[in-house]
Design brief:
about 270 residues, alpha+beta, elongated, single chain, four-stranded antiparallel sheet
Length: about 270
């Protein structure tokens, strides 16, 4: 019998055994793969919690899981750091900032103070500032202080003019550094409680913007002056204009002559 004829007779008889062995190998591989899957009783992702979780596949950014109610695709960034570490992801911590390094290492401040360049800069700064104050004689110091006082008094006078021209005569608070804002807020039709915004910088900025628009409206001027009050340099010009310019009533009195109409005298018929 030839070799071909031998295989033609033997292979049909062994075919069932070969198929059985192949099927067993496939089942064993599947069981091994199933046994390699990670299982967790619960897995929390933000506000959601999955139960009976089985990790099917993990990538760099996503995790494919099967849970008690189906399957889900989870982003790695949505997991908290302990869960990421438990799943085998290595989280690289961001490098600490320079400020944090200084806080964590107090010796850095000592090293900075002992640096020769820093010491040279401090010596040069002290020498220049010391020389400036030495050249500043007593008369010049008094002149600088007098200029500052006069500028402040002029500013208070302009604030008083604005209050008067809005029919809100100010009190003595207009001459005090911080409390002058109370009559200014009243002149713009705002509550004096806005003065508390000085202690909250973002709120103070909002209060100032509102005041710019309201004070221009109270003075019956064009809206362009509100924008000028918000801009540097032009805010000084707009403020002086609002304080010294005439009101609409004053303009009306100065531009037209008042004529009084009276009935003509009655003539008696002779």
């Amino acid at each position: 019998m030839s070799l071909f004829a031998h295989f033609a007779v033997v292979l049909p008889r062994r075919w069932g055994l070969i198929c059985s062995l192949f099927g067993c190998c496939v089942l064993f591989a599947a069981a091994t793969a199933r046994g390699a899957d990670e299982t967790y009783p619960t897995l929390t992702v933000g506000p959601d919690t999955y139960t009976n979780v089985t990790i099917l596949n993990k990538t760099r950014r996503d995790i494919f899981v099967r849970h008690a109610h189906g399957m889900a695709n989870i982003k790695v960034n949505d997991l908290d750091l302990p869960t990421q570490n438990r799943l085998g992801y290595q989280i690289e911590q961001p490098p600490p900032s320079t400020f944090q390094q200084v806080i964590d290492s107090p010796n850095r401040i000592t090293q900075l103070e002992s640096n020769t360049r820093v010491q040279e800069f401090e010596e040069q700064l002290m020498a220049r500032s010391g020389g400036f104050f030495e050249r500043l004689d007593e008369a010049t110091s008094y002149s600088v202080v007098a200029c500052i006082v006069l500028l402040y008094l002029l500013f208070c006078f302009l604030c008083r003019c604005i209050c008067v021209k809005t029919s809100n005569p100010p009190s003595a608070l207009i001459w005090l550094p911080l409390l002058k804002q109370i009559p200014l807020f009243k002149a713009a039709g705002m509550s004096p409680k806005w003065i508390l915004s000085n202690f909250i910088p973002p709120l103070f900025l909002i209060a100032y913007i509102i005041w710019c628009f309201k004070i221009v409206r109270a003075r019956a001027k064009k809206g362009i002056y509100s924008v000028m009050l918000l801009l540097p340099v032009t805010n000084v010009l707009a403020f002086v204009y609002l304080a010294l310019s005439a009101s609409a009533a004053e303009d009306g009195q100065g531009g037209h002559e008042i004529i009084t109409l009276s009935p003509s005298p009655r003539r008696d018929v002779a």
